[in-house]
Every structure is written in structure tokens, then in C-alpha cells.
């Protein structure tokens, strides 16, 4: 961490675990702020994840359509999933592509990573671009029901601006693609 940030760091003085689940845990920490005051911080400890932007080679991408219970809505997202114990992000990306998209990548390139919501959550998402796709099938997780949707590059700007893309990892990956390919909104 850069030295300039040390004067704004907060330090934990007490930690209280509230919940331990399968993919996340919740704790409430009391922290000492730089001014010396005690403040409360709620922290979701979440497994790290990957996202894969699948490039078809035909000026289109493959997205996953699925129902998300937490928001009571169907979303369009890049292929994604949690990194399982013993996997590195590349292995998780390869597995998730085969489970959700039914493809494997001849070329898998890390394009970046970010904290999903650093104000309260530890989840870090590593994002990949996959190309040279070849059919390859692994069974979906038992609690998963996803389908694949092909989206042309020229549809992406409108989807980002009209609200059809509401998932942060997908928004980030498609924005990266627009910048890389020089895709601009029509008009």
C-alpha cells in the first residue's frame, strides 16, 4: 500500500463474528479511526471469484442468462463463479466456462480484477477474456439453471446505457471490450 495512505488507515480493536456460511461470513468490527474515535464496520468475508468474457471470434460475446434470487430478477452476465479450494483463478475460469457456456478457451487472458464492493465485502473478482473457443462440456452445478446468449459487439453500447446490463463484473468486462475494440455508441 502506498505510504500516503497510512495516515487514513483504520485499525481493528475488536472483532465479532456474526455468521459463518458456505460462501460468505459476516463480522462486525470495532475500529479506531485516524482521529482516535471508535467506529463500527460490518464486513462480509466472501470467497474470491472469476468472470470470463467469452469472445466468439465473430464480433460477438457469449453471456449467461440466469435468475438471481437475491434481486428477484433475470440477469445477463459474463460466465462467472467462485474459486474453489485448491484452484487458481485460471483453473476456476476454465471449469466455469465448461459448466456454464459448454466451451473451453484455446486462449485465456487475464484482463484485470477488482473488489466487487469494497465498502463492506472482501470478494475479489479476477476477469479473463477467452478466445479460440472449442466445445467442451462439464455438468452445471445442481442448483444452477443458466442458458447462453450470444450478443453482437454493436449491441453492447445500448445494453450498457439502457440498463440491460446491471451486473458489475459484466459491465466492467464489456466496457473493457468496447475500449479495446474501439466500439462506440451509434449516433
Molecular structure report:
The protein is of the alpha+beta class and 187 residues long. The strands form two sheets. Strands 4, 5, 6, 7, 8, 9 and 10 form a seven-stranded mixed sheet that branches. It has a three-stranded antiparallel sheet with strand order 1-2-3, with no helix packed on it. Helices cover 18% and strands 45% of the residues. It has helices spanning 89-101, 156-161, 168-181, and strands at residues 11-20, 24-32, 38-46, 49-55, 60-68, 73-77, 79-82, 103-115, 124-135, 146-152. The chain has three helices and ten strands.
Give the distance, in angstroms, between the N- and C-terminal Cα atoms: 42 Å
Helix content: 10-25%
Number of DSSP helices? 3
Tell me the strand percentage band: over 45%
Structural class: alpha+beta
- The overall pLDDT, averaged over residues, is 93
Radius of gyration: 19 Å
Query: Can you summarize the main beta sheet?
Result: 7 strands, mixed
Secondary-structure element order, N to C: EEEEEEEHEEEHH
Low-pLDDT parts are: none
Number of strands: 10
Shape estimate: globular
Brief summary of the model shown:
With 187 residues, this protein is of the alpha+beta class.
Descriptive labels:
seven-stranded mixed β-sheet; 187 residues; three-stranded antiparallel β-sheet; 18% helix
In terms of topology, how is this protein built?
Elements: E1 11-20, E2 24-32, E3 38-46, E4 49-55, E5 60-68, E6 73-77, E7 79-82, H1 89-101, E8 103-115, E9 124-135, E10 146-152, H2 156-161, H3 168-181
